[in-house]
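Q: Got a minute? One more chain.
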Amino acid sequence: MQESTTCLIIMQGAAHRLSGALRESEVIQILLEQAMAAFDARAALVRLLSPDGEELLLGGSLGLSDAYLNKGTIWLSESGVDRHVLSGEAIVIDDIRQEPGFQYPMEADAEGLRSAIAVPLKVRENVIGLLRIYLKTADQVGDQELHLASCLADLGALALEKVRLHQSLFSIATVLNSSLDLQDMLSRMLDTVVHEMGLRAASIRLLDSKRQRLLLAAASGLSAEYLAKGPVLVSNSPVDQRVLAGESEVLHDVTEESGFEYPSEAAQEGIRSVLVVPLKLQERSLGVMRVYSSQPRQFSSVGITFLSSVADLVALAVERAELHAVLQAQYNDLKLDLAEWHRFLALG
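A: Always. Here it is, folded:
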């Protein structure tokens, strides 16, 4: 009972500190400090999976020398231990020097490292890196300690996801506020969304004046051939009908699910999964925003909420740009009227 209470106190303290973090570096620092304190550890480090998934990049560390941290690249192809961890397995290493698949054992020996716990950093089923805690001895590590390390890592991964989403929204809001040129603004925003969400492509379509067609406003990552495939008629697209009514739609495989217009063209473009969210101002639908994945993808509730938040920002930006265009046109008309009035006075 006492050990369980201690674990709960540790988790409560970690959750409290992590919930207030606003930057990725701050999250990692707090996670490392909590891990060091919980295990009275020799050192700790966080490594994050690179975008191409081939190496582990240093996220932060405590108790390790610069010489050890700069020993070389951590390639997954050369690190069996890390591959096990990134598959979702929490492991205990009794002796790093004799552990098969541990990269740089000689450098670890020179650093004075002997035992370690390694646990994945994952959000739901998405592994983003790992937490490694270097122990003075592995003799006292049991299931409860391994579970505690995994729980700390899960809290850290959730906090990392939160700050990344906040940073992404800030980046997108900055792009949307950077220009009143609607097409340029939307194109750059879509580039940012594709990068931040790790997607294949994205597009925005706005309703025409008769609210019968969805006209292309901007796209990122889609070929000219796909964009020219044909008109998108609301009457022919049950998916868009539901989205324009206010729902978000996830198509896990466009080649197998009904309601998506031009499925064969999408398959030829290399599109498998699609998430569609409405662009709306209060209760008025302006259009739809789509993101495309080249792999079958289960869009999480967090991802859907994130894209819906982006879509709300886009709708406001569209309204602002359209209002600016109207005011600019009225201003130009006023200048013409004044010019005509001056010419009339000059003739008089």
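A: The mean pLDDT is 86.
Q: Perfect, thanks.
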